[in-house]
Amino acid sequence: MAVSYLKKAEKSSATGEDDTRATVAKMLAEIEVGGEQVCVDYAAKLDGYHGNILVTSDDIDQATSRLSQQVKDDIRFAHERVDKFAKRQREALQDFEVELSPGLWAGQRQIPVQTAGCYIPGGRYSHVASAIMSVATAKAAGVKHVVACSPPKPGTGVNDAILYTANYCGADTILALGGVQGIAAMAFGLFSGRSADVLAGPGNRFVAEAKRMLFGRVGIDMFAGPTEIAVIADHTADPRIVASDLVGQAEHGPDSPVWLISLDEDVARKTIELVPGLIESMPEPSRSAARSAWADYAEVILCDTREEAVEVSDKYAAEHLEIHCDDLDWWVENLNNYGSLFVGEETTVTYGDKCSGTNHILPTKGASRYTGGLSVGKFIKTVTTQRMTREANREVGAAAARISRLEGMEGHARSGDDRLSKYFPTETFDLSH
Fold first, then answer.
1. Catalytic pick among 320, 322, 324, 360
2. Omega prior to 226 cis, within 30 of 0
3. 360 is a catalytic site residue
4. Strand order in the sheet with 198-200
5. How far is Cα 252 from Cα 129, in angstroms, rounded to an integer?
6. Which of 228, 251, 319, 322 is catalytic?
7. What confidence tens digit (pLDDT) does each residue in 371-422 have?
8. Which terminal Cβ of the chain has fewer Cβ within 10 Å, N or C?
């Protein structure tokens, strides 16, 4: 396999994990013991925020009044598409019941969780779109109570547009809390009195680690690390567009991996040449974040064949995967591991991130090998039901008793024995294995 690197990353997504884990474990333990006051203290210490944690309707009204009509229209535009897509996902999850054998019916039901906790990033950037992706999707799933939280700014609280968006999408409780303290508050039911059944939403490495540590006590959408993009490009690709899309994702943070898998060396080298200039043309903090991401986490890989490119791409299992190639249908049919696929130059990760309809909360660190992104299904339990006639026990009860004894589980076996004895008192059954 002829695969070579024009640029190799100096760091990986695992860099710095041990320090993060220790910090988060300490904070979670302190908050669980100390409760709301510890969250308040962390908000003051880490965010310089001394205001109310529980956002009021007056706060939301004031935030709404400060937004332009164009901002509100754009938020509604994005919500309409995300909500429509999520509701179609919900319709695809069906209840059913089937008769497996005479008198034995088995089925499934789709039951939304009672409470969802949605984290909305608001540190380096104010992620209005993330409020739509998590809150609107939870509501489309049928979640009765959604608690949202977002980092506050000193003296002002949660970003106005985030407050408006979370409320517009249906959040029932909004907390002015960020980071580990926000995740802990939602998980432990602080300030709201409702412990989240599922935690969802992107965040920095501390937020991601807090969700990972709490998994099991609560459900999580996924363990998501820094955002990633991979672009597969052949000779038909426009290096300027490819470079622009790589830089667009690199601005997320200094630890955001960006990967180019190219079938054409000229396209790859031209892209490498263009990226630094595009980075330096951006304002801060985007410029510094993208500069570090490109220096430490970017890779450019050359492949001789598209089959090799697919193999490399599936190994990376990128969160976002763009295809800038000829014969797009072939790529769609052959690629397997990605969080979300962007087919052709005409679409881009930016559209999916902001307003085109699919969810932007997606698996990272190779997790797309086994899971997809946030969907209504993350907020829904698929549970099973069973019912039987007495006559069906004749066959099922005897088989279950024999299998139980084969396994050495006599208590299980006797559950079948007792029903057979009750329902068919005059009959004899072979119940030994």
1. 320
2. no
3. no
4. 173-175, 145-149, 115-119, 198-200, 219-220
5. 14
6. 319
7. 999 999 999 999 999 999 999 999 999 999 999 999 999 999 999 999 999 9
8. N
